[in-house]
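Let us practice reading a record.
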Amino acid sequence: MATAAGTVLGVLATLAADHVRRRRDRAERDRDTLRTAFAEYLTTLSTAKDAFSRAEPAPERVGKGHVAIGEHGVYAAQQQLELLARRTLVDKAGRATLSVLDFHDAVLAGHATDSREYVDAWRAARQTRAALIDEMRNALRRT
């Protein structure tokens, strides 16, 4: 009887340990998937913003940044976030994208780098990106 009870307890302990290990492995994979998606989004957003900062003024293209930002892969990376991340993070990513679009318009409108419009758009893009990064860090800690 004692041998049978010991065997059952041993099997249960092994099953419990396997379950805990699988959960930990799954959580680590989920965290890696999120980290990759976050890095891809931030990279594409930064690439677009950097390209926009070097753009020549073209008032006829103001308001058409959605095409340019799509060419940099920002929308594709943002859609990946929509599949993986919580709504609060996705909303902050959307605000970050919009702030880069506003920066695009400020540059193409011909505002000088020391003008109020340019500086405000640049700061807004930087602030929304910082808020997004904070939310991303929190998401990675929760995962």
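A brief commentary: The chain has a mean pLDDT of 93.
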